[in-house]
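Write out this protein's structure.
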Amino acid sequence: MGMISEFKEFAMKGSLIDMAVGIIIGGAVGKMVSSLVNDVIMPPIGVLLGGVNFSDLGVVIQKSPEVVLKYGAFVQTFIDFIIVAAVIFIIIKMMNKAKNAVVEEEKEEPAGPTTEELLTEIRDALKK
């Protein structure tokens, strides 16, 4: 099987589309979380720290040329990561719970009569 035909098979299964949708949604969630952290969470923290812009916090390592260790920007990025990880965890947990509920419903369906029971009923009906 050639590489192009393998790719066509992969794309037609829906895996490629599912992956693309996931990437697009993940990018949108990432932007929303970044805005939440930068515009909602960090400003009050900056006010509590004396009115500083948290992303500007850093330590100058060298003056000329200036080299700055920007720990404030790192903390903001870390908070972004924690929130995104928590959201993804919650979504996956909800999906697994829904999937398990569907599996449990399928298991709870009563089984029909066995082949032996059906044959016994047919035999008894023929005797009558």
